[in-house]
Write a structure and sequence with these properties.
Layout: E1 6-7, E2 12-13, E3 20-27, H1 31-48, E4 52-57, H2 74-88, E5 92-95, H3 102-106, E6 111-114, H4 122-129, E7 134-138, H5 149-158, E8 163-167, E9 170-171, E10 177-178, H6 183-188, E11 194-197, H7 198-201, E12 203-204, E13 213-214, H8 219-227, E14 233-239, E15 253-254, H9 258-275
Parallel strand pairs: 3-4, 3-14, 4-5, 5-6, 6-7, 7-8, 8-11, 11-14, 14-15
Antiparallel strand pairs: 1-2, 9-10, 12-13
Length: 277
Amino acid sequence: MKQKIVSLPTVRFSNDLPLAIIAGINVMEGRDLAFSVATALKETTSKLGMPFVFKASFDKANRSSFKSYRGIGIEETLEIFSEIKSQLGVPVITDIHDPSQATSLAEVVDIIQIPAFLCRQTDLILAAANTGKVINVKKMQMMAPWDVTNIFKKFEEAGNTNVLICERGTTFGYNNLVVDPLGFPHLKEYGYPVIFDVTHSLQQPGGLGEATAGRGRLAEGLGLAGVVQGIAGVFLETHPEPENARCDGPCATPLRDMEAMLSHLKEADQMVKGWKK
């Protein structure tokens, strides 16, 4: 299968092109944190020569507990995204949760993301597709790699093939996710760029009772296992102080460790794709 290229002005995604990085904070906690993380990541990815998209969620609508922090809302988040785009010159991505949000998001963000639990919601897919934006679809935790074919067909029927498919782990018993390396070749068979959400694959859903536990210290090893499959990009969440993050702190990579990890991922990507030339 010929591998498709999905393009933004400054980033191109393809399983045959250099590894792209989607990285940022889990949930928007405020302007200062967003700018400090986005600035640090831009400096690191520019130094390494890696394409970069900044990510943050305006609403964590699927938190474990009613008491959990959800974010600062769509309007304030979009204002911050607009500033980051204009001042730092980096594209941005955020989640959509309801079809009614599609138009507002499309005015600002470069990539609209379909959360894993919602990847079979036809109305949501159509609303996102009709914006004409690039769409990153998280593969549901209960879905086999070959079952994503129906997701692609929905986007194709809607006339939008600017689609990324994102692996984020598969449910394996209670409070556990695993990543099957054999799943990446299956996903690549469709030709669409494959993204590996390393951070959320490290989750232990519900592992803390009212919150999700995680294995953030294992991010680099897991990321390398995905990158050596020859994929388009990785999705990573970071925080200056993961222990104080408002959401998914146990899965996040400390910001101080990102340069070393991205450097190793780039080396692995170059090695694997060099073999294919």
